[in-house]
Design goal:
The protein is α/β, with parallel strands linked by helices. The protein has helices at about 40-50, 65-70, 75-80, 85-90, 110-115, 120-125, 145-155, 215-225, 235-245, 265-275, 280-290; strands at about 5-10, 30-35, 35, 55-60, 100-105, 130, 135-140, 160-165, 175-180, 185-195, 205-215, 250, 255-260. It has eleven helices and 13 strands. The strands form three sheets. It has a nine-stranded mixed sheet. A two-stranded antiparallel sheet has the order 2-3. α8 (about 215-225) packs across α9 (about 235-245). Bound molecules: 1-O-phosphono-alpha-D-glucopyranose. 1-O-phosphono-alpha-D-glucopyranose binds next to β11 and α9.
Amino acid sequence: MSKPLRKVVFPVAGLGTRFLPATKVVAKEMLPVLDRPLIQYAVDEAVDAGADTLVFVTNRYKHAIADYFDKAYELEAKLQEKGKSDLLAMVQGTLPKHVRAIFVTQPEALGLGHAVLCARPVVGDEPFGVILPDDLIWNTGRGALGQMADLSRAQGAAGVIAVEEVPHDETDKYGIVAATPVDERSAVIRHMVEKPKPADAPSNLAVVGRYVLPGRIFELLERTTPGAGGEIQLTDAIEALLKEQGKVLAYRFQGTRFDCGNKAGLVRATMHMAMQDPKLAAVVREFAASH
Ligand code: G1P
C-alpha cells in the first residue's frame, strides 16, 4: 500500500447475543468500558491511523451508533449554558471535525465478508482498514491499525492482518494463518483458514479484528461462496488474494487485546481501564482484597 489509509470500515451489524438481554435494545458496540462505548475506542484508533472517512456497516437495530456520532443540540446547548466546557468538549469530541461517518446497511447477516462487501460503494478501489470493535486493543503509543498502516506502506504489502497466538484448543474461534516470519513482529502469510478444528489448524496464530486491505478484495469477496458456518468469510477472500500472489503480512501488534465480544473480556477490559486511573485502581484493589 502506497497511499495513506483514509477509510476504515466497522462491521457493526451483529446481534450481540452473548449480551442479551441488554442487546435487545443496546447495540453491543455501545456497551461501555468505563465511560466510553466500545465503538468510541475503535473510532479513536481509526482516527489515530489517519482515517477521515468511517464506514459503519449497520442494520435497523443499530440506530444508536448513528445517534452517538450525531450532534446533540439540546445537550450541547445545556452544557454551554451551564459553562460545563469539559463535558461539552467530550460530547463534541466523539467524532473529530475533519472526520465523516457514513452508514451503509447490511440487509441480511450473511457473514463478515458480506458485511465488508457492503462498504464497497463508499470505499471504492483504495486501500482501507477494517476494525472489529469487539476486539479492543489498548496501548499507550500508536494504535494497532496505525502500526499496521505504517507497516503496509513501508513493506509495500497489499494487506496486513493483526494476529496473536491463542491456545491450541481455541483455533476454531478464529481465522488462523500459516506464515513465514520476516522479523519478530511480522510474517508473510502463506495460507489462511477460517475457524479450523485444532487438529486441522496450520498454527495457533489467530487473526484478531484489524485488517489493512486493498480495494481488490471487493472483487474477490463478490466471488466468495459461503464457507465456515455457512457465512461469506473475509478469511476466504484473503486466501484468494494470497493465491493471486498478493503479499499479505501477519502482524503481532504492540498493545493488549481484550475480546469484548464476551463477558469475561469485557470485565477484563473494564478492570484494565480502571487500573489506569489512580482513584478507580484503588477501588479495584480494595474490591479484590475483600472478595
Ligand atoms: C471474525 C473473523 C475471524 C477472526 C475474528 C477476530 O470472526 O471471521 O477470522 O479471527 O473475527 O475477532 P467472528 O469473531 O466474527 O466469528
